[in-house]
Amino acid sequence: MLLEMLVPGNAEVKQRRVALRSDGNILTDNMSARVCFFILLTSGCLRVARSGEPGTIIPPCPTNLSGVPGVPTNVHLTSTNMDLVLRWDPPEGACSGLIYTTMLKSSVTAYTPSCVNVSAHQCDLTTSISIYGTYTGRVQALWGDTRSDWETSDSFVVDKQTLIGPPNVTLLSSGGKLEVVIRDPVFKRTTLKEVYHSVAYNITYWKDGQEDQAKSITQIQQNRLVLDELDPLSKYCVRVQIHTVRNPRPSQPSSIVCETTSSEEETLWLVAVVVFVVMATVVSLVVVLVLKWKSISQFLYPKDALMRHYPEALLEAPPSSGRVALRSMEPAEEISHRVTVEDRGLVEAAESS
Which segments of the chain have a pLDDT < 70? Predict the structure, then answer.
């Protein structure tokens, strides 16, 4: 079995071929290749081919890497339901351990940093955008103190190029009809109707097993539609897509939803049951009212009437403490006795005369 091995050496990478015998011995032209093979094998950096497929050893970036990393490839912006994500692939022939920095600009602003020193190959920019903006992203690779050149994406108009997700569809069976209820996909920012003022739904439906005979209803403005003229007790399937004026691409189609229609006899029977329940409830209430009328009338119109002036007495304001004090300060009744004062000298003179 032959293995291909990349052996780092200063500023260049040397390629050696190593042959393995069936007994596990390593046949190389010199001892250094054998040592390198052992190190790579034990460190987990060796990928060995099986069943005759060629194998390649992809080592991590050496610590003494010189030069500048290559630029990232396939840099592009994507959007689903009004988000915005910058994506890229590693540089050609890149070793592991690279990190990346991204920047974003709009048609009216300069580049600003977004994701810094990340190891992933994507950067979510949703919180940095306007729903009607035009944006361009760029990314560079970093290893230690070295940086690659910037690689720039194409410009991206979010509301015109975003991929609208599938709507949610529910079917309600009523007699020989089906009501289609449509819910818009959930946007990362705002809602479908706020971004697109002209939204239409295209509904395709067919009898189960007869998709080749499907019928379509286009340019529906409402979220609800009744499909009539259907066969009773038959299973029908529905699929819905959203179309807008600003975005030339239709939405992703909804999941196929199926429902069975009922018969008209079942609908009439259900109506009859509902009417019967309502009438029975009304009759029961009337019977209870007649039987309990005496108790109800006594409660509403009691025989013992309240005092005529009782409401007025309740509404009259109670006397304040000041008025009570003034009333209690009325003058008390005076008690007097007649008193006669006589001069004793005058009395004695009157008696001697």
Answer: 1-67, 264-272, 294, 298-353
3-state DSSP call for residue 64?
A: coil
Closest CA to 219 of 244, 194, 251, 254: 244
Same domain membership, residue 142 and residue 96: yes
Domain residues for the domain of 109 are 73-161
**Among candidates 152, 156, 124, 125, which has minimal Cα distance to 247?**
156
pLDDT confidence of residue 40: 41
For the entire predicted model, the pTM comes to: 0.59
User: What pLDDT is stored for residue 189 in this prediction?
Assistant: 85
The answer on 135 and 85 residing in a single domain is yes
Q: Rounded to the nearest 5°, which phi and psi values hold at 77?
A: -105, 140
Does 229 fall in a domain? Answer: yes
Are 172 and 195 members of one domain?
A: yes
Of 34, 42, 47, nearest to 4 by C-alpha is: 47
Cβ contacts of residue 98 below 8 Å, gap of 6+? 61, 69, 90, 91, 119, 141, 142, 143
Task: Compute CA distances 323 → 327, 328, 332, 338, 347, whole Å.
Answer: 6, 9, 18, 38, 57
Q: What is the pLDDT of residues 313-352, one digit of tens each?
A: 556 656 555 555 555 555 656 666 666 666 666 555 555 5
**CATH code for the domain of 184:** 2.60.40.10
Phi, psi (5° rounding) for residue 241? Answer: -130, 150
For 18, other C-beta atoms within 10 Å of its C-beta total: 22
Angstrom distances, CA of residue 256 to CA of 248, 252, 260: 23, 12, 14
Cα–Cα dist 55/2, whole Å: 8
In this prediction, residue 38 carries a pLDDT of: 41
User: Which residue do the tokens 């019928």 mark?
Assistant: 215
Q: Please name every residue paired with 146 in a beta bridge, in sequence order, or none if there are none.
A: 143
